[in-house]
Fold each of these.
Amino acid sequence: MVNPEIEKRKTFAIISHPDAGKTTLTEKFLLFGGAINTAGAVKRNKANQSNTSDFMEIEKQRGISVATSVMGFEYKGKRINILDTPGHKDFAEDTYRTLSAVDSVILVVDSVKGVEEQTEKLMEVCRMRNTPVIVFINKMDREGKDSFDLLDEIESKLAISVCPLSWPIGQGHTFKGVYNIYDNQLNLFEPDKSKVTEPVIKVNDLSDELLKEFLQPKELGKLKDDLELTDGIYGQLDKEMYLEGLLAPVFFGSAINNFGIRELLDTFIDVAPSPRSREAEQRVVLANDKAFTGFVFKIHANLDPNHRDRIAFLRICSGKFERNKFFYHTRLNKKLKFSNPMDFMANEKSLVEEAWPGDVVGLYDSGNFKIGDTLTEGEQLQFKGIPSFSPEIFKEVENRDPLKTKQLEKGIQQLTEEGVAQLFIQQPGNRKIIGTVGELQFEVISFRLEHEYGAKCGFRMLTFKRSSWITAKDKKNLQEIMQRRAANIGYDKEGNPVFLADNDWALNLAKRDFPEVEFHKTSEFS
Ligand code: GDP
């Protein structure tokens, strides 16, 4: 029996390289869902890109991202949960983790810039979990790249097949609209930032006389040629392949002009998966399982330094979550109940009495949770798929106020539990090495250590740029690399050995010198 509460839920994230239009698209979705009334209501969730030392921006970013961490709304009988991801590239790890809590994604690509660096990284993370992807090619009102070239670029750079479901007529100043291949209709473009719907002309097929009223013969001729080509190259949408994460349906539009959004949203609710089964170390958990399970994928610090409370974001995987019911924290081996779980509908927070698979609830936490923690009704379970990723910048922590050593230790432990950065310990001397994806995190860390914990620290840049978790079938081989390359070995928060290298070349050399040792890009390997 399929639970209708699960069937109606669609939990996803909108991802993009900064500035491609993620925030704009999110806002338009919320407008359609009736969750907000005006454009401009979704705050730009990003720190100033050029001024990394602007702490006010960081603080704003942290404050705002609580409110917009999850945006839920109802649309056509479905409950849509959009999980927000930070716009700034330095917070990419946050985004990677959020992707562990979604069932699918919409990837926004800028038609002028094409596939950008961050797009490639995000897709790599999607591929790790076979997350279904829909692509929205945005900014068609600007003079961008050729549509066929864009599709080629997506296929080659993102290693995924594509299937266009709409096709643009013109581009930039000649942009006339899109032909919806899925529904056989012509959507006419009118540049207007405030309107909610575009004129839609329903036709039988491309030979419909009606098309001639709206398109010049040249435009219609090109559209027919293009569609014949796309049909030959890409064919029909294979939904199974989409659900397996192998094929991405593609739409063209202009988020700022609210163009192409409704068809994107309608197709999304039609094809995107409802909550699916998930792998735990012990077994596969089905969304339909009766017993409640969920995991924490994000922890948010409270902005008020007088309250050390944090909010842990729990994704529900199976069963029903209930307020004031005891659940089992599998890592701590203890029962916890939550009297104030939070639900998020657009910009509003409210108390939640019950929640279902696909939903995200915010739990007030005084230090019980780490990222990846699992809650159940008593079963010993640990969800997979929430790994740590290899950081790119490594710095050693220097204590600048020896009287506050304890505070420093505690602060670093808590901040790394929140997932702000990763901590590696190097011996001898218990050296603390912080690894991050971006420079901005170091500023966040020293700012927060000082303001929330009263500790002062500096950072000494290290030459490491890569880290690989290492394992070996025979313990002897692991010991050998750890002894011979001691200067390159650190331990992560679970005590697992990690090989730190200056660059890819050095890493490859180590792989060659120690062929019996396995090197892993993330902390999760099985
Ligand atoms: P994000 O960083 O991916 O969240 O991108 P934003 O949604 O903040 O958009 C970045 C910039 O692109 C903003 O200035 C938007 O107004 C602009 N933008 C978004 N969509 C469109 C579009 O369809 N056409 C044009 N010309 N600009 C757009």
Amino acid sequence: MQTPSVQRVCVLGSTGSIGVSTLDVLARHPQQYSVFALTARERVAELAQQCRQFTPRYAVVLDEGRAEKLRGLLAEAELPTEVLSGVEGLCQVAADSQVDVVMAAIVGAAGLRPTLAAVEAGKKVLLANKESLVMAGPVFMSALAESDAQLLPIDSEHNAIFQCLPFPCEDLNAAGVERILLTGSGGPFRSRPVSELGAVTPDEACAHPNWSMGRKISVDSATMMNKGLEFIEACYLFHAQPAEIQVVVHPQSIIHSMVQYRDGSLLAQMGNPDMRTPIAHALAFPERIDSGVPALDLIAQGRLDFEAPDEARFPCLRLAREAVEAGGSAPTCLNAANEIAVEAFLRGELAFTEIPTIIDEVMKSTEVVELTGLEAVELADRNARDLAQQVLARIQAGSPQ
Ligand code: NAD
Ligand code: MG
């Protein structure tokens, strides 16, 4: 048997929750993977520590001031790692000819350019950064079709769906698929009285019952916008119509999603809620490697529950479905407005229940346009952010907090 060559990995967003889990998996397989580049926005000391552990060829931070600081830390440690900065630095390492695999784990729209750079350079791209696909769906998917890149979903639900589908699967109908069942835990406020939701704090919203994640996605899980973004993500990834996807609330997060076939079969992928499983799956696909996640003990687990989502409690789910049905720039607009609203909520400047209010207003006052290319995506994103800031300012002026 041929000795497999070492795969060189670029981890975009290495200091985040997904980034750290990715490095945990990579560290278990030093013969198979080496770290080529690590990137972060601001946690320079942590990035320097990761550089000490993995000695990447490059480390990238967003601004030049922090890059200088990192250069100092790396020089002290006598490391050869070269430090780059800016979006250009991110795109450069994502597309470097020496890179085999790119983990796209930057949070939010900021991940779009580097993720697209990896796609255009024909990399194996592990997609955690769902916002980049949601905001740029048609542009992203055509870049993928025109390149030699392979896109593997990291989002646990999409990774589960991928595992339950035949491979490759270009056409759900031809594969005998009737429906995709997208599961979600319902987040920390699934059964909190609706009347109390206006007063919940960022820390309460970030205390997810099953998953430990970054703060933005944690708030998205609490509003169920995360499931909304995932709904849109699934439409693009699996060439699915919105009517072919059903959201099912499953509070234990043991089943990560399911695929229902024409013959009555329902395939589910299960496991402990730990992102190292989808990360290891996508990294090694089609092989299987150890992820460090303990086997699921179904007897200890005891039961699995399911219920329908409550769209009155979680209007974000409806807003996301409407956005994907409207198509064009509507998901771009939804994502941008959501990012502005969530940031304001995390700063303590907006009530939790006003997150969907902002998104709804921005969606209603924005004309849907066709996404002809990256410029059109970025323009729609900017316009929606400006509008969301205006709505936010109006809400803040009307209701001092
Ligand atoms: P996080 O906030 O923990 O980490 C984000 C990373 O991106 C950090 O390394 C940060 O430095 C970097 N970053 C942030 N803003 C940046 C910018 N403007 N430019 C460059 N880098 C920037 O987030 P996370 O929870 O790891 O999530 C990352 C992505 O993965 C998100 O898109 C999220 O939706 C998705 N995801 C996360 C999980 C999870 O369990 N955490 C599960 C599924 C999908
Ligand atoms: Mg998910």
